[in-house]
């Protein structure tokens, strides 16, 4: 036998005849008309199609189409690839559920965790009981039930050795704890990323505001009509005052120029005025003397 064929063989344990089924349900399956109708189906794919078409579960020891198909699969001795095909099937969750039940009944207990651990969070739903109030569970919850519980819908499951059962419980507990840590850490990172994003937005907005304030020119002042009138009066008063100041400055300039005449020039003026006065007095005295002779 080649290595490829050896790797494809599923390691089983327990009763090779009954598939580790409860004795009552095993007998009920063998006596079921539906199970006898499956005799003419000889291949794996034919049974898979049958599960797709007829797949309700049942509560108690009454055989259902799902359990009849399950035992029919056992008669075919499924390989690893065929089991993988069932538990990853995309057409029907019932095909997947029968695949997990097959593993729980015949797979070596020490290998159950390797098969089930990847599906504990699977959210696909199946209906495991019919009636007025049908029971629905997810594939992930089904896997947990098959690992840690001793019954499935009132039907006894194969007994798992105590050391292996404790190891499975511990692994499941560690898995849940790690899942919570990962979830809390992810939420913490999301919160930090959100804070960083808000901080970056605040910094960018503040820098853009600073840039806009630097780049903007000073705002122009606008005035109302009344304000403009007051402003015109103010400008007129300013211009009038400036004219008065100019006139006053010109007069002061004239005065300063008068005061700035040189002393020599003033002396000449005084000399000329005195000489004119002397001349006038002399002329007057000569006239008086001529008249006095007559």
Structure overview:
This protein has 294 residues and is mainly α. Helices cover 67% and strands 4% of the residues. It has helices at 3-7, 23-30, 33-37, 44-53, 65-76, 80-87, 93-106, 112-116, 139-148, 162-215, 225-259, 263-293, and strands spanning 125-129, 135-138, 151-152, 155-156. The strands form two sheets. It has a two-stranded antiparallel sheet with strand order 1-2. A hairpin with a 2-residue loop joins strand 3 and strand 4 (155-156). The chain is globular.
Largest sheet at a glance? 2 strands, antiparallel
Percentage of β-strand residues: under 5%
Order of helical and strand elements: HHHHHHHHEEHEEHHH
Q: Classify the helix fraction into a percent range.
A: 55-70%
Average pLDDT for all residues: 75
Instruction: Give me the number of helical elements.
Output: 12
Q: What is the chains' assembly state?
A: single chain
Strand line-up across the major sheet: 1-2
- Basic shape: globular
Structural class: mainly alpha
Distance between the termini: 190 Å
Strand element count: 4
Low-confidence stretches: 206-228, 258-262, 280-294
Task: Please compute the radius of gyration using only Cα atoms.
Answer: 59 Å
């Amino acid at each position: 036998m080649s290595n490829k064929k050896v790797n494809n063989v599923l390691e089983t344990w327990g009763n090779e005849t009954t598939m580790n089924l409860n004795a009552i349900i095993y007998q009920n399956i063998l006596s079921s008309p539906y199970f006898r109708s499956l005799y003419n189906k000889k291949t794996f794919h034919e049974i898979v199609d049958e599960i797709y078409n007829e797949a309700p579960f049942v509560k108690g020891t009454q055989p259902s189409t799902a359990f009849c198909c399950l035992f029919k699969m056992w008669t075919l001795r499924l390989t690893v690839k065929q089991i993988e095909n069932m538990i990853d099937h995309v057409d029907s969750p019932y095909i997947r559920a029968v695949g997990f039940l097959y593993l729980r009944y015949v797979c070596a207990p020490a290998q159950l965790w390797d098969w089930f651990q990847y599906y504990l969070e699977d959210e696909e739903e199946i209906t495991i009981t019919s009636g007025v109030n049908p029971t629905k569970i997810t594939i992930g919850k089904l896997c947990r039930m098959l690992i840690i519980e001793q019954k499935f819908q009132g039907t006894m499951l194969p007994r798992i050795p105590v050391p292996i059962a404790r190891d499975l419980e511990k692994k499941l507990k560690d898995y849940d704890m790690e899942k919570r840590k990962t979830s809390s850490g992810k939420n913490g990172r999301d919160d930090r990323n959100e804070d960083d994003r808000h901080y970056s937005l605040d910094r960018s907005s503040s820098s853009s505001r600073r840039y806009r304030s630097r780049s903007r020119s000073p705002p122009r002042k606008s005035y109302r009509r009344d304000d403009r009138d007051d402003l015109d009066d103010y400008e007129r008063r300013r211009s009038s005052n400036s004219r008065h100041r100019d006139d006053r400055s010109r007069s002061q300039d004239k005065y300063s120029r008068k005061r700035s005449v040189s002393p020599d020039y003033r002396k000449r003026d005084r000399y000329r005025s005195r000489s004119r006065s002397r001349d006038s007095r002399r002329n007057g005295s000569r006239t008086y003397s001529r008249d006095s002779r007559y």
